[in-house]
Sequence to fold (103 residues):
Amino acid sequence: MDGMTFKCNNCGHVFDEDSLVKCYDDDGCSYSGCPYCKDYEIEEVEYCEVCGKYKADYDEENEMCEECVDNIVNKFKKIIKNSMQEYELTTLENYYAENDFIL
Ligand SMILES: [Zn+2]
Ligand SMILES: [Zn+2]
Fold:
């Protein structure tokens, strides 16, 4: 996708860079605002293919939003916890605290 995508934190609309409107505050200062409600509370977002939402917390490395990364990590932890003994989990935790986590 070309250009940046923004989301308005006030009305929740998603729009591209070209849609931003020039607005003026009470002091006459200009700012780029939401084309729907003219609010300035906008932030850059990216589309997450996994959950299908526009998110500001997009993780470039994993090409998905951080929430989806968390879900995967939690899923992994759940599987591990369900299939291992307590002392095995402690051993793993100690091991990974000292070594890089590589599967
Ligand atoms: Zn808005
Ligand atoms: Zn996501």
